Structures are given as C-alpha cells and as structure tokens.
Amino acid sequence: MAYIRVPLTRLVRVKKIITCFTDAPPAHYRSGLEKHNFWEMVVLRRGRMGCRAGDVEQVLTAGQAVLHAPNVLHGLHGDGEHPFEFFIISFECDSPALAALGARRCTLSTHQRQLADAIMAERELCFAQGPVHPLTPLADAPLGSQQMIALYLEQLLIGLLRETAAADGGLFSSRMQLEEQLVADICSYLEAHIYADLDMEAICAHFHYGKSRLCAAFRRVMGDSIMHWYHTRKLEEARRLLLESDQSVTEIAVRLHFDSPQYFSRAFTKHIGICPRDFRAARE
C-alpha cells in the first residue's frame, strides 16, 4: 500500500516575536505614535482605551483587540477617567490573509481571551523580566516554551480570521485571488532581492510553501516559471545599469550573481538581441 503524504498548508505562521508584555498605566496615559515593519496586536484586558491606526480612531473596551499592520502609524491612550490594562505582542508574519485583520477591532471570545492569557503566562516562563525590548530568553525555560507562544498566537489569529471570513463572506472570493496575492508577494520578494542569489529552496523557505505549490501558482498567474522570471528581471536590471551607470560588464555580472561574465553576455544577447558592450556603446 502506498501511503500518501499530504503537505499541510499554513494560513498563518508566526516567524519571530519582537515584544510581549502587559502594562497598566494611569488613566491619562498617552503613548507616542509609532510605526514599524512588523505586526502588533493590542488586547485590552481591563477598562477603556482609545486606539489610533492611521487616520482611524477607535475606542476599545475590556476583551477587545486590534491588530496594527506593518508600517501603519499607531498609538493608544486612556480616557482620562478609567484605569486600564493592556497586553501587546508584536511579531513577524508574512501571511497575506492577515491583511484582513489590519486595524479591525475584534471582540475576543472566552477561548480567545484564554489564548491571550496563555501567551502571557508562557512569556513569563521563557523570557527574563526587564525592558520591553529586547526580549532575553531564559536558559532554564521549559522545553518548547517559545514555540508554545507561537502556537497560541497562531490559534488566536486563525480564530479571528475565521470570524472575519464568516462575517465578510470569505477572505478571498476564489482560490485565484489567493494565488494572485501569493504571486504578487513572490514578485515583490524577488524584486527586493534582485542583487541576491536566490534559489527555489530559499524562496520556498521564505514563503513556507512547497516547491510544487509555489511553481504551479506562479505559472498559472504569470505564465512563466519563478526562476526564469527572476532571471529575466536580473537581465532587465543589467540593461538599466548599462544605460545609467559606469560599471563594467564584469562588475554588473558579479553584482547580479551570474555564473560568469561570459554566461551573462550570452544571456543578455539572447534576451536583448545585442551584446552588453554593443548595447552600452549604442547609448553614446
């Protein structure tokens, strides 16, 4: 009998946490506005609290939460009358689905509040008390305690996504929309690493998908393979450098991680129809 191994999809995968703490400031407390390139979840445990995300101002009551998406200006403040207590965890997560929760005020169920409490309890076991940042892991932390934080947080986020999907008729109206978002993220990642030497193993590790899943989605949306698209973008970047810089053909080949200047010249000639040196000479 042949056993079929089914790859498990990951809707949400928390990669790293940056901060994880509770605070109970006075009623007149007002934080400064900030933005950063990672997610932040704020859970109000007691009292009332004002919360700003971008141009949106909301009031949270006990048991409610809000997620701040990366690079969104945000802050919080008391109402001047009621003491309040909140819990914050900030983290890295590349899931496209999480965008559905950005700046959305959520009322946590009893189970979801228990998950938030479990995160806080586990945090006490695996990180030292002290400054909010950076977190300092404890050498004698219980086995798997950091992973437990990620698992509790992922459960909490998936629960909120399910509720949002039920209320909005689904996060993505079709599989194609989900794939289009995934492929757009892949293209952005490749563009951001045009001077790197990425391979499929690195790309799959970044997006936490198998090779066949990523390649099939990319080909359906773009009509091309991932590595051929990446290779073509490198050649287009080489074209730009030949036109706009004084770097030599060899320097450009090295910067863009072609195997050799000779291979770069052949690939460029095939793609553009003229060799790099003649292409540069033609700009004069």
For the record, what CATH class of the largest domain applies? Mainly Beta
| Structural class category | alpha+beta
The CATH H-level homologous superfamily of the largest domain = Regulatory protein AraC
Rg result: 24 Å
User: How many strand segments?
Assistant: 8
Topology order in helix (H) and strand (E) letters: EEEEEEEEHHHHHHHHH
Helices, by number, come to 9
Biggest beta sheet attributes: 5 strands, antiparallel
Order of strands in the sheet with the most strands? 1-7-2-5-8
The overall average pLDDT, rounded, is: 89
Q: What is the CATH fold-level name of the largest domain?
A: Jelly Rolls
Strand content: 15-25%
Q: Based on the structure given, which CATH architecture of the largest domain is correct?
A: Sandwich
Total individual domains: 2
Share of helical residues: 40-55%
